[in-house]
Automatic annotation (TrEMBL):
<dbReference type="InterPro" id="IPR029063">
    <property type="entry name" value="SAM-dependent_MTases_sf"/>
</dbReference>
<dbReference type="GO" id="GO:0008168">
    <property type="term" value="F:methyltransferase activity"/>
</dbReference>
<feature type="domain" description="Methyltransferase type 11">
    <location>
        <begin position="102"/>
        <end position="177"/>
    </location>
</feature>
<dbReference type="Pfam" id="PF08241">
    <property type="entry name" value="Methyltransf_11"/>
</dbReference>
<keyword id="KW-0808">Transferase</keyword>
<keyword id="KW-0489">Methyltransferase</keyword>
<protein>
    <submittedName>
        <fullName>Methyltransferase domain-containing protein</fullName>
    </submittedName>
</protein>
<dbReference type="InterPro" id="IPR013216">
    <property type="entry name" value="Methyltransf_11"/>
</dbReference>
<dbReference type="GO" id="GO:0032259">
    <property type="term" value="P:methylation"/>
</dbReference>
């Protein structure tokens, strides 16, 4: 019944009243079959992600998606971002609520958040978010040890310029996670600047505000900007029952970029 009603409720209205909806869904999906590692919530199953219609994907409590939950483990196990006593300058584009709540509390991080539309309802829980155009950043060269920029570049018309800016502001020895909707079986990225209507973009690129579908050459674009790049199928480190319990997409790749 929840999912049926949500089909007829405008998405902005759902976002505006998501706390009420969250309490409702929590009661309806109460259980212990799935676990969100970010907020430690348990449910019978994850909720449907409204924009795409994907079922059993969204944490009812913290709104995490499969990519967030996988990245959470990666950041915990493969990086130094949560290390106590580790002084890091962190830049976080379009800060995901799930990670903002964790990183903003880290006393050793000099944590900067930014987005082109900082007043968007998506960031209403984020304090002191700066307005920034990723293709023309105001930050000085070598300003950040860590950059998080996930599911951003597929929205950017001149993504190569954005990558060059990310490289410029990253400090030598720094690293970043730059995940995008990546179709790894496709060799080349598909983009067509003539496609501008939201309905046509949704059909061509999977979402009304996307401007391309990335293929494997996404990694080459990042390398051309100067980065050393790896695309880690990190979910392969988990047993099948854990992949199901945590709600991972086993095909997601963690795209790690380093500046030597």
């Amino acid at each position: 019944m929840i999912e049926l009603l949500k089909q007829y409720i405008p998405y902005p209205l759902i976002k505006a009243h998501r706390n009420v909806l969250r309490r409702w869904e929590s009661r309806k999906l109460k259980g212990d079959k799935v676990l969100c590692p970010i907020c430690n919530s348990r449910f019978e199953k994850f909720a449907t992600y409204r924009p795409s219609g994907r079922k059993n994907t969204r944490c009812i409590n913290c709104r995490s998606l499969p990519r967030h939950r996988l990245l959470y483990f990666y950041l915990q196990q493969r990086t130094n971002i949560f290390n106590r006593g580790q002084k890091l300058r962190v830049l976080h584009f379009a800060p995901e609520f799930q990670f903002y709540t964790l990183l903003a509390k880290q006393p050793d991080l000099e944590y900067t958040t930014c987005d082109l539309s900082p007043k968007s309802p998506d960031f209403r829980e984020v304090k002191d978010i700066k307005k920034a155009d990723i293709t023309q950043l105001s930050f000085a060269d070598n300003s950040f040890d860590v950059i998080l920029c996930n599911h951003v570049l597929e929205h950017i018309t001149d993504d190569r310029q954005a990558m060059r800016e990310l490289y410029r502001v990253m400090a030598p020895g720094g690293w970043g996670i730059f995940m995008v909707p990546l179709i790894f079986r496709n060799e080349e990225t598909y983009e067509d600047p003539s496609i501008t209507k939201p309905s046509e973009r949704r059909k061509a690129f999977g979402q009304y505000d996307h401007v391309r579908r990335y293929g494997r050459d996404y990694l080459d674009r990042l390398r051309s900007a100067g980065f050393e790049v790896t695309a880690d199928r990190y979910a392969e480190n988990f047993m099948e029952h854990d992949i199901q319990r945590f709600g991972f997409n086993p095909y997601d790749r963690i795209v790690l970029c380093k500046k030597q």
